[in-house]
Write a structure and sequence with these properties.
mainly alpha; ABC transporter involved in vitamin B12 uptake, BtuC; two-stranded antiparallel sheet; 14 helices; 4 strands; 4% strand; globular
């Protein structure tokens, strides 16, 4: 007679779908955005009003647009510390040229200047194989100084309706917004489509994810990287135009924290600083988190310096989370 053997305990199946959902970059950023909205709506009854939510969107336009450019660069395992300075120079160029030769010519010249500066960054990174951090840190310093010299350390008021068009307000029911918000959404849609539906987008991810494999697959890494910096220049021009719509006054000292805030938005949105993983949808969520944080802390009466501290802490936390996720996926 055979003796019965004790049944080996079977481990319960892991909820793989739930685990994958929790590990998804958009899950964490979406929960963070929802938590921030709940907290600030409790702290201030004004937070969830239509007027304040509209203000959050309008205040996020410039950083939101620049964050798209930062996303593209970071996807290639680079970083652009000069994108804010390029946009500020763009506002000065646009304000001056529009007053002298007309708005449309000014927009074209501003576009050429911003793209040229993007080409300088891309050319130094791809041609001389210099680290993007060093290249863009150097160009940031040079562009910032050149902007102040070009402007004579003065501000330039703008009255041309074409230049200030993106600041025009219109209503959708009880909700008011600006054409700058529409421009930001269009930038996200166009770049998001390019990243997910075109060969160029696949090459961008390949260059950032595994450069050696990308080259073996026939991807022209230098050309792709250079194109990313050129597109970043185009986006910086759009941000400059939106900035003059938001505040019709070109200031050479504006947006000094733009680099930090764009990197914060990108990393919080789930794009890896090591390249090859992420996307603009996450960046949009990250941008809204930064905007909600600043707006909520302002309504709560928190000093701007403490807001900067909170933004810096967010960067550290987001990078730490990214590191943990990378280690967990490589096990």
């Amino acid at each position: 007679m055979s003796t019965p053997t004790s049944a080996t305990p079977v481990a319960p199946p892991r909820p793989r779908a739930l685990s994958s959902l929790v590990r998804a970059p958009l899950f964490g950023s979406s929960i963070a955005l929802l938590a921030a909205v709940i907290v600030f709506s409790i702290l201030s009854p004004r937070f969830l009003t239509a007027g304040n939510l509209s203000l959050v969107l309008q205040q996020s336009v410039v950083i939101g647009i620049l964050a798209v450019a930062q996303t593209l660069v970071i996807l290639t395992a680079g970083i652009d510390l000069s994108i804010g300075a390029i946009a500020v120079l763009g506002t000065i160029v646009l304000a001056q040229t529009a007053g002298e030769i007309g708005a449309f010519a000014g927009l074209l010249i501003t576009l050429l200047v911003c793209v040229a500066l993007g080409a300088v960054n891309g050319g130094l990174v791809t041609g001389l194989r210099l680290p993007p951090f060093i290249v863009t840190l150097g160009t940031f310093t040079a562009i910032f100084a050149a902007t102040r010299l070009f402007a004579g350390s003065q501000t330039f008021p703008v009255t041309d309706p074409v230049v200030t068009f993106l600041g025009t307000t219109f209503r959708i029911g009880a909700f008011s917004t600006t054409y700058g918000v529409i421009a930001m959404i269009l930038v996200y849609l166009v770049v998001g489509y390019a990243l997910t539906q075109t060969a160029w987008g696949k090459h961008v991810y390949a260059v950032g994810g595994n450069p050696a494999a990308a080259r073996l697959s026939g991807v022209r890494s230098n050309r792709t990287t250079l194109s990313v910096y050129l597109v970043a220049g185009v986006i910086a021009m759009i941000a400059a135009w939106a900035a003059l719509g938001r505040i019709p006054n070109a200031d050479p000292n504006a947006f000094q924290n733009a680099n930090l805030e764009t990197i914060t938005a990108v990393v919080i949105g789930g794009t890896s600083l090591f390249g090859g993983r992420g996307g603009v949808l996450g960046t949009l969520i990250g941008t809204l988190i930064v905007g909600v944080l600043r707006n909520g802390l302002t309504l709560a009466g928190v000093d701007n310096l403490y807001q900067n501290i909170a933004t810096g802490v967010l960067v550290i936390v987001a990078v730490a989370v990214d590191q943990v996720m990378r280690r967990s996926t490589t096990r």
